Amino acid sequence: MINLTINNLPVQVSEGQTVLDAAHKLGIDIPTLCHLKSTGGCHVESKTGSCRVCVVEIDGRPNLAPSCCTPATEGMKIITSSLRVINARRTMLDLLLSDHPKDCLTCEKSGDCQLQDLAAKLGLHRIKYKGEMSKHEIDVSSESIVRDPNKCIMCRRCETACNVVQTVGVLSGVGRGFEAVVGPADLRPLSETKCTFCGQCVAACPTGALTEVDHTYKCWNAINSGKTVVVQTAPAVRVALGEAFGMEPGSVTTGKMVTALRMMGFSKVFDTDFSADLTIMEETTEFIERLKSGKNLPILTSCCPGWVKFFEHQFQDLMHIPSTCKSPQQMFGAIAKTYYAKKIGVKAEDMIVVSVMPCLAKKYESARDEFNASGTRDVDIVISTRELASMIKEAGIAFDHLEESQYDDPLGESTGAGVIFGATGGVLEAALRTAADWVTGKDLQEIDFTAVRGLDGIKEATVKVGDLEVKAAISSGLGNARKLLEKIRKGEAQYHIIEIMACPGGCLNGGGQPYTGGRCDEILAKRMEAIYRDDKNAKIRKSHQNPSIKKLYEEFLGKPGSELSHKLLHTHYHGRRNV
Amino acid sequence: MIDSPAKLKSHAENLSKNSKPATTILVSLGTCGIAAGTRPINDMLKAEIASRKADIEIVEVGCMGLCHSEPTIEVVNNASGKSVIYGKVKADQVAAIIETASKGIEAASCTVINRSWFYPEENETATPERIQARIVLKNTGKINPEILDHYLAEKGYQALSKVLFDMTPQQVIDTVIESGLRGRGGGGFPTGKKWAFAAAQKADQKYVLCNADEGDPGAFMDRAVLEGDPHSVLEAMAITGYAIGSDTGIIYIRAEYPLAVKRLEIAIDQAKKQGLLGKNILGSKFSFDIMIKYGAGAFVCGEETALIHSVEGKRGEPTVKPPFPAIEGLWKKPTVVNNVETFANVCAIIRNGAPWFKKIGTPGSPGTKVFALAGKVKKVGLVEVPMGTTLRQIIFNVGGGIMNDRKFKAVQTGGPSGGCIKFDQLDTEIDYESLKRLGSMMGSGGMIVMDEDDCMVNVAKFFLEFTLDESCGKCTPCRIGNKRLYEMLHRICDGRGTRETIQNLKDLSNSIKDTALCGLGQTSPNPVLSTLAQFEHEYLAHIDEKRCEAGVCKKLLKYEINNSCVGCTLCARNCPANCISGSVKQKHSIDQSRCIKCGVCMDVCKFHAVDRK
């Protein structure tokens, strides 16, 4: 243990901990901006020490030191609030604000901006060092992410998310001196890069430099267009939406959310959990076929568009092993605009499908050329959990006072297997529940495959499916996916089935979820717990037992893997440039 | 193949026994010499020798340090050992030089340069004419850097041989610690200590990195060493490798030094072929290989952590220390980073011992320092002086005083992040500490002399513009703070500054120094603070009187035509802005609203009728 004093108070920390850690232990608040640390499942640590806001005075050192990346050492004497420190801190913030647009009133990030919070906290009411401001082009090239480099404070947190956590390698420091900014190489548009649109950079950004492409107004227009507007909500949305309304993290808000969506004017409120069940039907069929033939194993899940784009850029030699199933979002759109549209007598082009997703890559996915099973786009508009929250607020709906209501039939009926899609390991567990029943021909009661649960980045399990020992692996976070895939590429690991989600922790930590501030670890754990609670409470917990799914096959698709299924519910992948 | 210390020794002895021609002519063919036109002179000398069948050999050497007199050659009479240096050699002097060289006399009508340096290693001592001491530059300007035997004849690789066969790694480190050698790249950290840190680390791989990313404007010390004496750096790197337990050296050199790169490549190749680098050096168990890595032109990559990232293929930007490179450096392995000049001291220390080295220089900063003397001084060039030499001696003795005998105003040391030193401080004996006390620093050795025509506000602005351009932009104070400092200086130069601007300059400069992440940022406000401390009156003149004493800040200038005007129309005809009016034989006048302050009218006027105010 290391003994030191901060503001004359003694404190003990363990080897490797920083001055900031020590200060937190004493309850001393040192403001930070560039520092990002989460030790949970989505282990992230960004300590570039670039913003210099957290500087403190250390006895014996000529200069102030950044507390976030200065290791605590024995006997250190630290002062965190001397005039010298206060002046330096104010100056740093003054400088940052002097080169930051003052459009807080209209900024996407207003209210969630850590720079804004800091300015309020330090009571900076006047900018002393005014001068020229950065003039960079705003990148609106992608379907998912808006990059406004003028709001970039060079904290590099996005870079850590992109390069260290996700190993995507798109964002890095570009340019020198005052011109320096974080962006893709040559500041090329995001749409022309290997960006997966996972949105982890957006989640990491403390300011409005990285935000989602806002589709809320497009959505209001659609609702009022006179067309049939149906909405689907992804599993992970229901366990996070409440946070935007001050509810406790981990609150399951499904019923209130459905009521709110209905009040907003959607014709029908459906559930992506339904198409998650559908995905299980198709994917498990594919899995069992591959298991029997022993070919193209391991099968990789394909629900996550960020992950799909990642392997299209970076693992083209493995493009034959992911499942050909579309994601639940796209399956929903395809079924809504064919089966359901026919059922209610509406033409596909007169129907608008809106998705509420915890994800930013879903916006990009819905715009992929091949997703038009009905002849029109499978999914027309995608909004994030955050965007839905802002629409609910805009509509003046008092969310926490809402009565609960039920999804509409038939595309609103789902199972516990569908809801766990929202957490890492959930897709695989859902598939195993169905596979085990199908292989054994029984209705098994032992369906909690707890080995595949939890926030760990890579999980491995051997699961009995009938007489078969199925070797499964789960990874969340693309950096972890890379580790797994490289093992497979080198033939170092043999698995039958692998679930991969781009975001650490799975969809519940998607790039479109409410910002977690500094409480990431705690909030993710609560969201995950809520998802499994929802599953546990479900009457039906296996996808193939969903009555509406059964009916869908009876009335329309025939059987899983049928020709029509393939036409509507399966897809193909494209190799993309690895730049 | 030289595979034993005995062979190395006998080879060197044989080289000294070889018969030499009557005369040797050393031709300065560093980049500076080549740029000044030494190549054609060299060709002519060769042709002249051939046509006369004279007993003269030409040795193409590196920079002699005499930039003010290029093309430079040195004629050495091998029988008497006497030599004469000719500067500013012209084509029509070549014949006379060869003619007189054969006779052993000085050529008339040529510019003779007096040697202003001595060689401590050859037991020479300082004289009033020779206050420079050449240790680092011992061989530059003396040997052909592309011929290994020339280096071997100058005790080359004998220091390496000595450490490999007579010393333990610890003894090598102790010797360097005892010598008091400090890093010549800027910070002045004790070199031996750095080695000791790296040596103490247990690791499967360690690295020796040579920082040859010399980027200060006007600095060319390292280039001269690499172009003129590359083996001395290679040998020192191998010694470092032996001391810390590393088998790999990397030279990080700026790609803008093609000649230095070429000569390094040749030298590495030669040393490997002779068994002086590579596997089992000189038949010992020690192996050491050296690679070259090009820098892409970023000043900040001179900072050791930024340099390491650049070698790794990452963006060249510094990271927070600790961890220090000696503990966790290149590819997270213990790494010693020293600059070229530091390495160039090592062999002499090993050959002659620490006590010998400590006799030169000051107790706190032993040895010599190479400076690139530039600016408004008569004799610009490379100078190597013992630490403790005064600025006055360097500028007025070695440098010959101020150009055009103008008045000395200040000298800027330490490169762009150094400071300006005033007339009344010229007698300061320079070493790491004294310069720091004056608000400047040793830096890598740039020394720019300024006279009364230099505006100190503008000088501060100039240096800040450089650091602003070269900042990596990572930390807030350096990225935005320096920009704001620059803007404030700009405002003062434009006559828009206020007294508050001065206070803000001071406040912000101090904050930047206190908070910036790396050495570049922490020292970038030095030009501002030191000019403010020494020349605040100039700042105030700009602010209160809207006047630039030196006449540099154009926005504060005004050209006016006085009554001496005879109406010759010359100024009006030459004015590029067409803003001078007046008819023939009438007094002319300048339209101030259109004047671009170029000063052409004043230059062309034959009647002193144009005043600059």
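The mean pLDDT of chain A is 95.
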